[in-house]
Amino acid sequence: MLIGGGLITLMICVMLVLAIRARAGSGRGERFWIWGWGLGFSLPVLTILVGFSLWIGERMLARADDALRVEAHAARWDWEFVQPGPDGQPVRTETTLFVPAGSSFDVFISSEDVIHSFWVPQLGGKMDAVPGHVNVHRLRADAPGTYEGLCAEFCGVGHPFMRFTVIAYDPAAPMPDMSEYIIEDAQP
Fold this sequence. Notes:
Elements (H helix, E strand, L loop, with lengths): L1 H20 L6 H12 L2 H17 L9 E8 L2 E7 L5 E5 L1 E5 L3 E8 L4 E4 L6 E4 L5 E6 L4 E7 L11 E7 L12 E4 L3
Subcellular location: Membrane
InterPro entries: CcO_II, CcO_II-like_C, Copper_CuA, Cupredoxin
Family: Belongs to the cytochrome c oxidase subunit 2 family.
């Protein structure tokens, strides 16, 4: 990223020097700027940037494989999760999500009232929770640990308190005790 920014800055400096030194009234300079720098420089740079963005964005899309499926439902000013419990049956928890470390999981994100944004900075990008729509976001916790998540879209006076925790546990070890976090058994 730093190298790309440096190259773009260097190219802009070269273009400025050439613009200052260009002869007035020749017409050649105008064609050169339009075709040489306007298209010849812009198209390759934009192509590289778009390709890189698509490559990065593709890694965060859900795929049809055996990834764990969890649901995140936002409502002013709280997060509720539906996830597999210790016995494999879905359970509903409030503000805490349990996922196995080292494997990808898909979060199906929805909202009850206004636009919220599901974001766990240490695990990847963020995804909006839009009322009446379900967005799917693929994440992965590489190591066991506790990761803090938050709503990244201002949603009203309780917005600063709309935080949640992702607990990534070692899949080889017993599943952590989630009994204190369970609200009720979720209906499948």
